[in-house]
Specification:
It holds the Pfam family DFP. By secondary structure, this protein is α/β, with parallel strands linked by helices. It is built from 10 helices and 14 strands. The structure holds ligand PMT.
Length: 317
């Protein structure tokens, strides 16, 4: 398996068609919050795809639904952060995540009266809907959240770098919370067929190549002063902490949130250069609908405050 450098990746893969629009949105959002001295977190969420054809019918995907990222974005908002929510198109989003599938329709009643038809929220659903709706309206009224989306791994990287370019001005007030499940393997652009692969010529042999790790330029070049949190997903408990520690040693960022696929929604380990802290939800908490992201974000906000306070005063711009 061969691997290209991150520079080569950007040289070969063109930016997505909506890239300039997204870049303008990111710039405006960061400048506005920077003016007020706000903290901004970039939350990445959901999985990236790897297309098997340029006119894409088929692609390699992964399991991530965006549960972690969408829940975390809500808790960062609650803590007063402005949030760039960079997510896989059609994955879970903050606020609406509470009502996915048929849940929302089940909360409504309809009184059919022709042109005077009315739709109301069932009385016993108001208690569920109202707090979420209030938080949603408040976040939007304050301009505290920006949604940008990706599908492929190359779209993800273009957006990630653009967001970092805008966040760099915030220095230590920026947090990167890289919860998206990013593909480690891809097919280089020149090896991807233009049209739908045909079955007539037999089963295709597909060679995957290594995607360059973007954490390296991100930490060292793009946002060197930011508080960077990466995630480590494994399926083998024995690998989890050693690999999280190896990532910290290699990239020198602030924290790795380590989780196992099987238990990720009720157990994580926050691994920093100084310590490891396990967060486990009890069975009762899981049944009561407690989000583990509330505790993860709470701890990161606490540590980020030290990081931002300890940083030297910014040079006048
Ligand atoms: O969405 P959910 O269902 O709630 O699941 C949440 C989650 C399990 C996806 C999330 O908690 C998580 O662990 N996300 C990271 C998964 C992952 O990509 O792990 P990794 O070990 O492959 O990558 C480690 C880190 O390297 C990641 O923070 C990633 O941003 C970064 N990376 C990955 C690939 C790549 N080419 N460059 C990178 O910089």
């Amino acid at each position: 398996m061969t691997s290209s450098s991150w520079e080569e990746f950007f040289a070969v893969h063109l930016p997505p068609t909506d890239f300039e629009d997204n870049r303008s949105l990111l710039k405006e959002f960061c400048e506005r919050h920077d003016q007020y001295g706000n903290k901004i977190v970039l939350v990445t969420s959901g999985g990236t795809t790897v297309p098997l054809e340029h006119n894409t019918v088929r692609f390699v995907d992964n399991f991530s639904a965006g549960t972690r990222g969408s829940a975390s974005a809500e808790y960062f908002l609650e803590q007063g952060y402005a949030v760039i929510f960079m997510h896989r198109q059609k994955s879970l989003e903050p606020f609406t995540r509470h009502f996915s599938g048929q849940k929302l329709l089940d909360m409504l009643d309809i009184q059919e009266r022709g042109p005077n038809t009315t739709i109301t929220v069932k009385p016993d659903s108001v208690d569920v809907l109202a707090p979420v709706l209030l938080r949603y309206k408040a976040a939007h009224a304050a301009g505290a959240i920006l949604y940008v989306s990706f599908t492929t791994v190359s779209e993800y990287f273009w957006l990630l770098r653009a967001a970092c370019e805008c966040l760099a001005n915030l220095g230590p007030r920026a947090v990167l919370y890289l919860a998206a499940a990013v593909s480690d393997f891809y097919i280089p652009k020149d090896k991807v067929p233009t049209h739908k692969m045909q079955s007539g010529s037999g089963a295709p042999v597909i060679q995957l190549h290594l995607v360059p790790k973007m954490l390296a330029p991100l930490v060292n070049l793009w946002v060197p002063e930011a508080y960077v949190v990466s995630f480590k997903l494994e399926t083998d408990e024995n690998l989890l902490i050693p690999k999280a520690r190896a990532a910290l040693d290699k990239y020198k960022h602030k924290m790795v949130v380590a989780n196992l696929l099987q238990t990720r929604h009720h157990r994580v380990i926050l691994v920093s250069p100084e310590a490891s802290q396990e967060i486990v939800l009890t069975r009762e908490e899981v049944h009561a609908g407690v989000d583990i992201e509330s505790a993860i974000v709470g701890e990161i906000v606490r540590l980020h405050a030290h990081h931002a306070d300890a940083a030297p005063a910014p040079a006048p711009r």
